[in-house]
């Protein structure tokens, strides 16, 4: 097994290689505006660090969000392209699940990432491997009663201490965590989600109201 894992659902552009036993190379850079610019060089970098060529890959793991439309599609399109070009399977993993796995907490807790617009993408977990709720997007104040008293991880939790007073790192997901989680589940025969985006809401960019189509005379 040689899995290439990547995620662009948060400001972190993160890539890792997993050889079936553990992560053998990884790269993470935080830059919310340069996902498309940074992702392919990061893939080249981790392959070079491991001394491997791209045709050695046996599978792709990609974070499916939830996340902003523009950043999320960079990772998903790249994963699909590699999968088609190499003829290898592409597996999806919820980005929140990757954060929960990296947190390695024992009891119930919350994962929350920044959804912008003063909202968070979030879910509740029984432990680092077990999600209790579907991913959702809400204003922190609107879910205060559902998360009260629970530890929380992720950039969204750190942004809103009134709602998440017990928030701590990790702030962003890493592809290393995604790769370890995916490899663990694949080894156990668990079917991973299809590599399709969890957008949860419409893109920030919208066609202006009263838009007039200009047609030639």
Automatic annotation (TrEMBL):
Keyword Cell division on entry: no
Broad class of enzyme this protein falls into: transferase
Keyword Acyltransferase annotated: yes
Molecular function (Gene Ontology), one example: tRNA N(6)-L-threonylcarbamoyladenine synthase activity
Xref: CDD domains: ASKHA_NBD_TsaB
Transmembrane domains' residue ranges: none
Keywords (A to Z) from UniProt: Acyltransferase, Transferase
EC number(s) given by UniProt: 2.3.1.234
Protein name in UniProt: tRNA (Adenosine(37)-N6)-threonylcarbamoyltransferase complex dimerization subunit type 1 TsaB
């Amino acid at each position: 097994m040689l899995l290439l894992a990547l995620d662009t659902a948060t400001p972190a552009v993160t890539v890792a290689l997993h050889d079936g036993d553990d992560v053998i190379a990884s790269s993470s850079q935080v830059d919310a505006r340069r996902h498309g610019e940074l992702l392919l060089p990061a893939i080249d970098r981790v392959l070079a660090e491991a001394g491997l060529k791209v045709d050695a890959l046996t599978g792709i793991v990609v974070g499916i969000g939830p996340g902003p439309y523009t950043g999320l599609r960079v990772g998903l399109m790249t994963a699909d392209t590699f999968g088609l070009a190499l003829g290898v399977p592409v597996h999806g993993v919820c980005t929140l699940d990757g954060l929960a796995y990296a947190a390695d907490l024992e009891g119930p807790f919350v994962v929350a990432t920044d959804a912008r617009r003063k909202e968070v993408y979030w879910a509740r977990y029984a432990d680092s491997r077990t999600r209790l709720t579907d991913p959702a997007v809400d204003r922190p104040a609107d879910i205060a009663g559902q998360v009260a008293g629970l530890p929380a991880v992720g950039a969204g939790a750190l942004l809103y201490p009134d709602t998440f007073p017990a928030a701590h790192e990790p702030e962003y997901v890493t592809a290393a965590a995604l790769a370890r989680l995916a490899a663990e589940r694949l080894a156990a025969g668990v079917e991973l989600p299809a590599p399709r985006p969890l957008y949860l809401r419409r893109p920030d960019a919208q066609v202006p109201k009263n838009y007039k189509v200009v047609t030639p005379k």
